[in-house]
Amino acid sequence: MKYPNGKQYSSAGKSPGTNFSQGYSNRGMTLEEDINATNTFYLDTDRAVIHKKPTPVQIVNVNYPKRSAAVITEAYFKQASTTDYNGIYRNKYIDFEAKETKNKTRFPLANIHEHQIAHMKSVIHHGGISFLIIRFAVYNKTYYIPAESFFPYWDQQFKKDGKKSIPYETITNEGYLIPFHYQARVNYLAIIDKLYF
Amino acid sequence: MKYPNGKQYSSAGKSPGTNFSQGYSNRGMTLEEDINATNTFYLDTDRAVIHKKPTPVQIVNVNYPKRSAAVITEAYFKQASTTDYNGIYRNKYIDFEAKETKNKTRFPLANIHEHQIAHMKSVIHHGGISFLIIRFAVYNKTYYIPAESFFPYWDQQFKKDGKKSIPYETITNEGYLIPFHYQARVNYLAIIDKLYF
């Protein structure tokens, strides 16, 4: 295992590396960078308070040099026990996971973990709003999938002949295309407004 | 600087070290350990979905050895931009910070950061429930302080002759003693039930 999502680690915004070569209309930002920028815009304009949780790390060794910052010298990536983003919007608890795929025809369910699904089910049970943001990088299309619509596709994979992925067409039918806005690059609150208010 | 809160890092639950010598009636657990156990109990009994956010870490260098897990070999503690705990309870967004002090007479305001106060003010503005959990370790008493009650004490410190701490007596008057429960060691939902439902 490398990083829990299977990708090599790259420090956000610091070394975008190959991302610039993907030809996004929105200047080669990753989905995570776009969502972070969106959340900052929501916060600055007092629309919502939604943050990405820090990457969970198991710290094994720390050095405390004199007169300088503590240095973590040995640590490992841990698998997250919840989704990556949560917060509050219009009195409602908001909770979601975001995934980008380079696949052209389907979203592989292996991108999501069982405990994240369990978490999203709990959130809905307690009255929160939960969803997935899925970007198909090759089309540069980003969809909002209500968690309630996602669960049946998740659950069916464990049945006989269950499918391990969701076709792109299903995503476009069950999901909502998230509009791009210059400052809210992944303007998902527009979908929440439409669905819940 | 060491850890943002000024303390040396200790891996929760792994090496409790000196904590066991503090003579808590609740078996020498730190406040963080008690709250984590409480949140796990709430989750297991389906009462609430509240988690501690991971410690924010700035990752600088990662090694990817063949056939084994990625190792972070250089990283630094970052200051959190929000509070440590959030989640959902009875349809409400819940957001709080927890601090333990060894001080016998007062709670030093330096334990909290300006951006955490700004965050708590935003949370309340958007309809969430925000508070502080403050433990006076020497008395083994843990209090729930509504954020709204805390703000005036925070704000006055910047005025002329402002006090940089809150007296213990004020905490006991403005706050609510959190009951200890065998499985919910810091049973703060009992206070939320009383105040909001």
List strands and helices in order, with pairings.
Two copies of one chain form a homodimer.
Chain A: H1 31-44, E1 49-52, E2 57-63, E3 71-77, E4 85-89, E5 92-101, E6 106-108, H2 114-125, E7 129-136, E8 141-146, H3 147-156, E9 165-167, H4 168-174, E10 176-177, H5 189-196
Parallel strand pairs in A: 5-7
Antiparallel strand pairs in A: 1-4, 2-3, 4-5, 6-9, 7-8, 8-10
Helix pairs in contact in A: 2-3
What is the radius of gyration of chain A computed over CA atoms, rounded to a whole number of angstroms? Answer: 18 Å
CATH architecture name of chain A: 3-Layer(aba) Sandwich
Mean pLDDT of chain A comes to 89
Q: Fraction of residues of chain A in helices? A: 25-40%
Oligomerization = homodimer
Q: Give the CA-CA distance, first to last residue of chain A.
A: 42 Å
Order of helices and strands of chain A: HEEEEEEHEEHEHEH
Model regions low in confidence, pLDDT < 50 over at least 5 residues of chain A: 1-7, 10-24
Q: Remind me, CATH topology of chain A?
A: Trna Endonuclease, Chain: A, domain 1
The count of domains of chain A is: 1
CATH first level of chain A? Alpha Beta
What coarse outline of chain A follows from CA principal-axis ratios? globular
Helix count of chain A equals 5
